[in-house]
Amino acid sequence: MRFVLRMTVRELRASWRRLVFFFVCVAIGVGAIVALRSVIQNVRETLVREARAMMAADVRIGTNRGWTPEVRAIIDGHLAAAPVIARTETLETATMVRSPGGSAVARMVELRAVQPGFPFYGEIELEGGAPYSHDLLRGHGALARPELLAQLGIGVGDTLLIGGSPFTVRAVVAKEPGRRAGAFTLGSRVFIDYDDLVKTGLVTFGSRVRYEILLKVEDDGVDALTRRLRADLRDRFAGAWSYRMAEDDISEDLQRAEDYLSLVGFVIVVLGGIGVWSVTRVFVKQKIRSVAILKCVGATTRQVLGTYVLQVMLLGLVGSVLGIGLAAAGLAAIPDSLTATFGGAPAALTWSAVLQGAGVGLLVSLLFSLVPLLEVRRVKPLLLLRGGDASVMAGGPARPVMERLRGIDRVQAAVAVVVSIALAAVASWQAASVQVGLIVIGGFAGLALILWGAGVGLVRAIRPLARTRIFALRHAVLSLQRPGNQTRVILLAVGLGAFFVLGVRALQTNLLGEFSLELEQGGPDMFLIDIQQDQAEPLRAFLHEQAVPGAADARIIPVLRARVTAVRGAAVNLENVADVRGRGSLAREYTITYRDHLESNETLIEGAFWTGQGPLAADATELEVSIERSIHERFDIAVGDVMRFDVLGRVVEARVSSVRDVAWEDARNGGFMFVFRPGPLSRAPHTFIAILRAPESQAARAAFQHALVSAYPNVSAIDVREVLASVRDVVENVTLAVSIVGGIALFGGMLILIGAVAMTKFQRVYEAAILRTLGASSRTLTAMLAGEYTTLGLLAGVIGASGALVLSWAVCRFVFEIEWVPTPGLLIAGALITTALVAVIGVIASGDVLRRKPLATLRAE
Amino acid sequence: MIDLRGVTKSVPSGTGTLTILHPLDLSIASGTVAAITGPSGSGKSTLLGLVAGLDAPTAGQVIIDGVDITALDEDGLARLRGTRIGFVFQFFHLLPSLTAYENVLVPMEIAGVRDAEARAKTLLHEVGLAERGHHYPSQLSGGEQQRVAIARALANDPPLLLADEPTGNLDTSTGHAIIELLLGINRTRQTTLVLVTHDPELASRADVAIALRDGRVVEHRVQRPAAAVAEP
After folding, report:
1. How many Cβ atoms sit within 10 Å of the Cβ of residue A334?
2. Residues 6+ apart with CB under 8 A from B173
3. Are strands B33-37 and B208-213 parallel, antiparallel or unpaired?
4. Are A41 and A353 in contact (CB under 8 A)?
5. In this predicted complex, what is the ipTM?
6. Chain B residues close to A380, C-beta within 8 Å
7. How are strands ordered across the β-sheet holding B192-196?
8. Smallest CA–CA separation between A1 and chain B, in Å?
């Protein structure tokens, strides 16, 4: 062991420069893993710590339907038996506000009406440092955010009209627990008193209000109470949540994000691993004579192998430490504005991320170097008697396939299998999913196999060129197929690198394309919601009056909110709400409508629509419904099946008579999963929405909203332009993150390429020296190198780009379930850039080959 | 010391096999200086390789110090070479990444010798390189590299020293010095010395001269009895 240690130190002293790419390859991947994991762990810790403040309570009970006496009785029963310390109720709704005089502007806000006691945890911070108290809200007081006051041109002490009622702004909210900058909202926050909101009349039938009861409970009673409430409320469209569940939810979501991002890091590590493999392979070739000498003076194979494995582990360790340093530097460079988006989580390394990164770095170093290192077992000291010609064991002339198969080293093959399994295990560990781990490793193996095959094919295909009369070309071809060539290794490293980088970019393009962030010309840009039945007709006239010249008339569409409670069908049978819940999103609340025709953005794909058949009888017991294609495909519901719906407390049954395809990107007519045949539903209480094109200029738009809110205080306008701006901000953050990850991958891929080229350089320095001696000029040598690397780069680029095409298609189709758009420009550019990069880097990194004096090289050999 | 019984060596070549050594019996007594001569391709180096356990015979037994080394596995052979056999090559074959001193140290470290450092210095002193121990092979002349190789070969005080054309890569005067060094070692340490050489002067100074041609012993001449040494 002492010998192994000492030899390791001596060898490293001499060879670390040659192996510098080894630890750089490891460092990039480890850095990616450590940085990504650290960021998410920090965010999670911050959010979990704030979970109780975000909820403002220990237990929250909520519904979108209002508290019926029956539900209240159930809740009160449970609360009486539980160690409840305090209780308070809140209402939350999106509505329009404006100032009575001032500017003619109306804004949508997220209104929260609270009772005394709110919040039990966390603190509403007010500008100026005054403490929050419920007294500020009593008697039509309001608290608002500074940006709203600025938009309306009012200040503290001024009046704000909410639902037509005047409120006095008593203070400015600086910070509200649980609300973060950068998160998506419909509008800024306004607080008012609970009873005051009820008096405004905004809380009417069908309006979108969130009703909540907040509880402060003895800590040991939290879980039991939440469990009992959930059990009794689950079929009554209400739910209960404890702050611990919020913690768990946040934890779970972020854990998933952490695992996926770490998988990206792992993929970068694997790219680095390929670099490690290639470096080790060349390194072993250079060390054959030394190994033979060691064996000749009495070292056993185990001692020699031990020396080199230990070297690799030390380099892996150095690489990991370097990677951790890179991660720390990267995190320090994150701007504060970005960390503020995630609740001001600190950008620091976490121990768990550091340990995981270092573990993966060491494992990958060992796993990827083990197979090439095993070559030292086959080194025979006899070669020293033959003048130390290393080619004694390097491949030799081509042999028939069967003979080659017989010649496979069984130990090496067995280790290769074990290494593959270990890599799949590491991938599964990083993704926290065996399935994902297997898919990633399987994908890598598949692509590696294709690249390997392409390498073999390339060598075969260009063989005839070796007879060309052009000297440089002939030798470029010979270089690609000489014994022990690096063709396959470079193809593998560069091809996988190109695949990954282009794949990420293609996916990014597709994902961003999915958010169509531009409004179509003349299309609708505003939605009005919560229109009451008696307002529908006057509003239609109002909108007609206010219509933008040239724009299509506003459409007013009846809407009801409904839940699926049962399905009786050929392929699927769901007896009750619990069964439906087992089907995931089928159990969510849907907005439904009724009409007698198909819209222009709808196509019938199965069954028959009721166009021209008139409404159903008012007393019909079975209604007719047309479902959207995705409901049909995802839940196996088909024409002829009978579905039971709970429409705002009324149970109705409807037979599926057709399946429609909705072109969602065409928003002019809205889109509905369930469209009913007019009839009994038309007489049920419901509200309307309006879809319209509002004036474009800021002033005209503000005046329009102002006029609307003055005439219809309960109607809320969702400004699509503002929503898009909001979404755009979120998307920009996502793009930034994806670009950073893609950039790291690109950087890693380039380093591996440089490493691979630099390693092969040692082989060609000798050849170049001989060719020089025989009269080859630098120009000829450069042309040879350029020819060789351009061919390699082109092939690697084309295969990588093709792989990226398949990857982006598969991920769009099966993971994100979005429409796939090919990105030929990106992929062609990617393949060409790869070619150019490989050619340039290949020639530059071989500079030594061109510069070195032939005599020095020949003497050294 | 060395006993070869019916040793042959053949290798596959194209469609048939090429016989490098025909059945061969040979004994070399302990303490003897034996010179193996012959034209290129006569099987000299192959024979030396078989004696060192660097290669396995196609048939027959190679017995060193009473041990049939053809029955040993690779690691067994490595241990045997580490402790019982020293080897000097025509091309020196020093480890380029180690200093002269460290090159001498390596066999002793592998064998786990205790006072390896002191002994390595003594050996370098013996071969006249006491001052050059911290130099790397690339900083040494051919003759100096061969001296380091000899010091390395002597590291574990092996009873058998094998040398494959030890002067073949050196100029005449340096070659002389190396010959004197090797023969001096034989005299002072009673080491059995087997040399493969093209050098007639070196061959004439050996106790036994063995001439090979086409894989057969064509001459086995005892030039002077190794009087001081008894058969094992």
Report:
1. 13
2. none
3. parallel
4. yes
5. 0.78
6. 54-55
7. B85-88, B160-164, B192-196, B33-37, B208-213, B216-222
8. 9
